[in-house]
Amino acid sequence: MLAFKEEYPLSAMARVAMADVVVPFYQPIIGRDRQVRGYEALARRWDAVTQSYQGIDFASLSQDESLHLDIVMLRAIMGDLPVLAKGGPYALSINLNPVLSSPIYRNLLLLVLLQARKVGITIWFEVLEHARLERQYRALIEVLRAHGAHIACDDFGSLACNFPRLMVQPYDIVKLDRSLLLQAERSTHALKVLTGLVICLQGLGMAVVCEGVETQTHVELANRLGCDYQQGYAYARPSPLSRWC
C-alpha cells in the first residue's frame, strides 16, 4: 500500500505558489493481458499542513492558473520520459488544456511529442469533457496527430461528453466515464447497452479504456465488456514515478 494519501480539493489559499510544487503522478493503464501498457499523468501537489499529496480541483482554477499548472506539468513530464521509457514501450496519457492562448504551452506539447518519439513512448492527449471543440482547438488536435499523438476522448458518457462529441471530432481512444461502469454494475440492461457501445466504438476503430475500475467486481465487468484497457484503484493509485521505475 502507498505511504501517502490523496485529498480533494485545494482551497483558494492552498493554491498560492502551487506551480512551484506541482508534480506529475502516474497511474497505470492495464491491457487485456493484465500487463501495464501505459500510464496517465495526473497533477499532484504536496501540502505541508497535512503532509500528504493532494489532487487538484481544476474546475476551481482560473484559466490562467490552469494553463500555468499544465505548463509546469509538461516540463516535468519531459524530464520523466527517459526514465519512464526504460520499462516500456508504453503509452502516456496527458490531459489537453482547452485554453490555447499560450504559445509556450503549444510549443511544449510538440516538444513532449518529439522527446517521447525519441525514447519510444506513444503520447495520448486527452480531450477533456468540458473542452469546447471550436475550429482553433480542432486544428491544434490535428497538428498534434500529425506529429504522432493519439487523441483520446475523456469521460465519455458523462453529461458533458456524449455522442455529439464523437460526431465533431475523430478519436483514437475513448475513455469511458466511471458512471457507466457503476450503472452496468447495478443493472443487467445497462451492462448489455454498455457492451454494445464498446463493440460499436471498437468497430469504428477506437480503443476503449474502462476508467474507475476500483474493485474485483469492476475488473470482471470490464473484462465482460471487452474493453481494450482498464484503469483504476483496483490496479494502482496514482503514484510518483519512482514507484514504477
From TrEMBL:
Superkingdom in the source lineage: Bacteria
Domain EAL: 2-245
SMART domains the UniProt entry points to: EAL
InterPro entries tied to this protein: Cyclic-di-GMP_PDE-like (IPR050706), EAL_dom (IPR001633), EAL_sf (IPR035919)
Protein's name according to its UniProt entry: EAL domain-containing protein
Organism: Aeromonas bivalvium
Lineage: Bacteria, Pseudomonadati, Pseudomonadota, Gammaproteobacteria, Aeromonadales
